[in-house]
Design a protein that fits this description.
4-stranded antiparallel sheet; Tachylectin-2, Chain A; mainly beta; 1 helix
Amino acid sequence: MAVIRALVLSAIACALVGSARADVTLVGVGTIPGDAADLSGLTGHASDGTPNNRLGGLGSAIAYTGIGDEYVLASDRGPKDGASDFACRVHRMMIRVTPGAKEPVSLKLTATALLTNEDGKRFVGALDALAHKEPEKNLRLDPEGVRVGRGGGIYISDEYGPVVYEFDAKGKRVRSLPVPAHFRVARPGKSPSDELPPKSKSGRVPNRGMEGLAIAPDGSKLFGIMQSPLVQDGALNEKNERVGVNCRVLEIDLATGKTREFVYRLDDAANGASEIVAVGDRDFLVLERDGAGGKDAKCKKLFRIDLTGATDVSAVAALPAGALPATVTLTKKALFLDLLAPRFKIAGGDCPEKFEGLTFGPDLADGRRLLLVTADNDFIAEKPFRVYAFAIDRNDLPTYKPQQFDRNR
């Protein structure tokens, strides 16, 4: 049995590192104007003047629901980097991808649900919606990752805490999932400077929390990835400049609440891990990008990673900024797709800064896998929301397993 297991793991590793990517095609791009209205029914304006029904920021996270062409998308905390009391929300959207059609990617918004706690109080994106050290007691929320569970529940990773919540289909929080205390900012504050060293010496870096969320194909586990290393993991130098490259990936068992942690290494400290989506039981695609848009964009890449053999670093209090000790094995990592490759014609003056959403959808009619990539427009009215639809040859993802959903939900 040991020999068989070794051969299987070797085959997976070869498939990961040697993926040919022979036929990855950009089928098309769907767009919605940046000043479009959502279906929340809200009127008036948020504290910064943005219309309360603005359909913005929804490129932050996207997940397939398992029903036809329906997807859930989460708007992030709103405009002005947390200076607005914009109400947090999720949207349902029909995204139909038809290669070769006049409109290969069509988008139709079908519903908007405001996110609330168990008492029906709305979550908002404001930094100052902070009253407690425990993030679960606060009403500030920055949704950055979203996945749909087997039974239809919605899981959201919050960048502020970081925390992971489960919501019902109507947007009401059902429960908080376990996130180890060392992920959380040691001293929550109402401004980013309050959460940086020397005031706060551990936990996530401001605006660099749990940016991505994946769910196992069988729906049993969640995997949250930090955008940057934790403060205690060498994230910053003495000037609070980003220098660390070792990001933690948190595995949460949904039945038991048990957690494990693994290390994903960024190609550059200036980059961030923006999203993670499951390919199989232990392998994933991670979206790593820089913070530049237009002609200045240099890194918008999808890496395929494998947790097989990676060290559980849950008990490691602090990781170094760079090279890890010999006792720690990283997740395997290989380039899968460069969004700035010339053949896709995404690079250039119109290239979005914030590619942030990844999800697989139903297979295309010709059998190829469908991968959707979304870009966050930061609620800027002049920037459209975009969905990039890629068709992937089955041979390029040999371990792919579609997510399972309960039939009678």
